[in-house]
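REQUEST ID: PR-0412
SUBMITTED BY: lab tech R.K.
PRIORITY: routine
TASK: structure prediction, single protein chain
INPUT:
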Amino acid sequence: VQFVESGGGLVQAGGSLRLSCSASGFSFGTYDMAWYRRAPGQERKLVASIGSTGVSTTYADSVKGRFTISRDNAKKMLYLQMNGLKPEDTAVYYCNRASAVKYLWGQGTQVTVSA
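STATUS: complete
OUTPUT:
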């Protein structure tokens, strides 16, 4: 199993980024998936999740209305569209299963939002 996250970078507050996660080594389309983030000095936290078919989504209160999670099961890809970025969104972002049982974490992608 492997996750490769990409799309992070340095952006000014109010800007946008689109993160991508390429998944391999498991039946991607059968699992609920999620984006997580770890800010400096903090634990990794759930940002958004999406059901296996892409119909149902959930968001942390802190990103609701600004972030949109989506997936392409045919390409085994997970996405996170981030708009209205704030300095407090600065973190390393990871993708993984949206369950207590998770696969090995990827390297993540750094998102840095300047004020």
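NOTES: The radius of gyration is 13 Å.
REVIEWED BY: pending
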